[in-house]
Amino acid sequence: MPDIDFFTLTVSCPDQVGIVARVSDFIASNGGWIIEASHYADPDLRRFFMRHQIVAHSLPFDVHVFREQFHEIAQEFEMDWQISDSRIKKRVVIMVSNLGHCLYDLLGRWRTGELNIDIPCVISNHDIFRSFVEWHDIPFHHVPVDPKQKHIAFQKVADLFDTAQGDVLVLARYMQVLNPEMCELYPGQIINIHHSFLPGFVGAKPYHQAYDKGVKLVGATCHYVTSELDQGPIIEQDVIRIDHSNGPSELVRSGRDVEKSVLARGLRYHLEDRVVLNGSKTVVFR
């Protein structure tokens, strides 16, 4: 993608003739230059999905005026839609427990500019990563979770997320189950990563369980969080092959490697507005 500023328009609506023509005509009539266009029609749900990237300086107005002028078309086609400006960095709040590999990876990608984001804070139910996070000049919040009063901790997390004006909450191996109220408060805004052995090998030491069963693949799943545990719409997945010579520690190492890469890709797809919810599934325009 050229180093230019652009608007990203994403649309989901009932499928019918004329959607692409109507949207493209609106953009073209205002001098808009579309540099990337993706479309998909779900044949089962008869629902249409679209993503357009438009050169920002080719339009005579900003995203606020775009929203005002596009409103009539959106109503006409019963659209769920959004428009974002690449010049406005999305604000990513990270949550972590006591495994730091995904946290280290995300902060590294942020430092190098691979993830063009702001990280207003990191939240954890443990205090072990405080010095590491604060070394990066990022505020760190320790929010312990009392098993008998989880709602208090998660209300604190929600308050911190709102205060930080977060756009997305990333569970970078955060090992507490969010309460349903929080999941419903931020639909499509909470991203999780976990191993892909589920629904098998649940609970403690899943890689050791997998080793005992002689598995030949190790993988990871990145998905949106819903009130149904680990059942949210999937954004990205990947696997790597292992064999009989790999012991439990090697499975853990391989699993953490794939977790890092899958979470980074899934988050990037979300940040670039490439993911559109489609009921219990997603449409991902790569």
Return residue spans where pLDDT drops below 50 for at least 5 consecutive residues.
none
Principal-axis shape? globular
Radius of gyration: 21 Å
Q: Can you count the beta strands?
A: 14
Task: Report helical residue fraction.
Answer: 25-40%
Pattern of helices and strands: EHEEHEEHEEHEHEHEHEEHEE
Q: Termini distance? A: 12 Å
- Beta-strand portion reads 25-35%
Mean pLDDT, all residues:
95
Number of helices: 8
Secondary-structure content class:
alpha/beta
Biggest β-sheet: count, sense, barrel?
8 strands, mixed
Structural commentary:
With 286 residues, this protein is α/β, with parallel strands linked by helices. The chain has helices at residues 19-29, 63-76, 101-112, 130-135, 150-163, 180-185, 206-213, 248-271; strands at residues 6-14, 34-42, 47-55, 80-85, 90-96, 117-118, 122-124, 140-142, 168-171, 190-195, 217-224, 234-241, 275-278, 281-284. Strands 5, 6, 7, 8, 9, 10, 11 and 12 form an eight-stranded mixed β-sheet that branches. Helix 3 crosses helix 8 (248-271) and helix 7 (206-213) packs across helix 8 (248-271).
Topology:
Elements: E1 6-14, H1 19-29, E2 34-42, E3 47-55, H2 63-76, E4 80-85, E5 90-96, H3 101-112, E6 117-118, E7 122-124, H4 130-135, E8 140-142, H5 150-163, E9 168-171, H6 180-185, E10 190-195, H7 206-213, E11 217-224, E12 234-241, H8 248-271, E13 275-278, E14 281-284
Parallel strand pairs: 5-6, 5-7, 5-9, 7-8, 9-10
Antiparallel strand pairs: 1-3, 1-4, 2-3, 10-11, 11-12, 13-14
Helix pairs in contact: 3-8, 7-8
